[in-house]
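tool_call: predict_structure(chain=1)
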Amino acid sequence: MPGIVVVGAQWGDEGKGKATDQLGDRVDYTVRYSGGNNAGHTLVVAGEKYALHLLPSGILSPTSTPVIGNGVVIDLEVLFAEIDGLNARGVDTSKLLVSANAHVIAPYHKVIDKVTERFLGNRRIGTTGRGIGPAYSDKINRLGIRVQDLPDASILAQKVEAALEQKNHLLVKVYNRRAIDPAEVTAELLSHVERLRPMVTDVTRVLNDALDAGKVVLFEGAQAHHLDVDHGTYPYVTSSNPIAAGACIGAGVGPTRIDRTIGIMKAYTTRVGEGPFPTELLDADGDKLRADGAEFGTTTGRNRRCGWFDALVVEAAVKANAFTDIFLTKLDILSGWEQIPVCVAYDVDGVRHEHLPMTQTDFHHATPVYEYLPGWQQDISGCRSFEEFPATTQAYVRRLEELVGTRISGIGVGPSREQVVMLHDLL
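tool_result:
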């Protein structure tokens, strides 16, 4: 049975949880493989809204085992708060597995994140201030603390002291902040050990054994392709690899284990944080998309920047992730427009670009070239088959399909689990 990766094809907030929800009861394991609690999924199940930040969306499925892979950085306080919130609403979280190799976000990571962003001024990158970047930085610098380090108090204390030795100098002498007490940090981390212990396992072995046994494993990418540290709009990116290939590293499975990659794209484009955004609308149309689409960050609460669909952005993601399928979300939000612009090329200093420019400089100077497609006035939120769509809606979907170069297999027409039109099975 397949290993399936679900990845956002734009800048995040595309509705990845919607696609994973459609696989629902047929998935045996749902795996987060990158990022931390800077990502968010909003799911509506039986009229109930759930906002997840660190846990995989499979936590809401009674038939799926939720897994946090080694590529994730974990804020333990956030993890347990999220678990407690779900438990209070009757959700069973007892099957959660956490990789022993996942890194932990310590309190000092959040302090460093906030003070450094503040000092960047106009060069800020739009961090969420949750310590994600500094935790990954420590991981790469080999100063990180892993989940498996926590039960050994002596080793943990030594690692915390080593991590803070340089950071405290920086905080005191550069940022004029108080030094952080290593003993306090160690004590806080140790306070979570007993609750965490039953969840910790060798995730790599568990997942590979599951695939050997014919189980379906869904790898759920946080953020999106264009926020990938290597392939995104650097430096306005996250600190990890949410692309499909990142699932192999962030969960410990080989590339031959991946059978299907599913890209998620909105019927328009949104972005949270800083960075170039050629089709961004800074007018009443942008305000309307934001209001109609409820475009506010699940994790940050920030207004999402809104613009028309950018085919070049998605096509680049299709290439790099080898998407086998696309799931299109929020098509219902476009109802009521007389015509709908779609970006099919860029003008960069008088030169037409049919594909995403190679350099960030060119991308920053890109002006969208639009193709105008007829809109539709009908409410499509009740449609459950492609044939029920107005002819202009069908034409819009097919044109997007042509532009991005991969079949559209599912379409979201509302926030609820059942508000979906499926053209091809995702399994």
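agent: The mean pLDDT is 92. Proceeding to next step.
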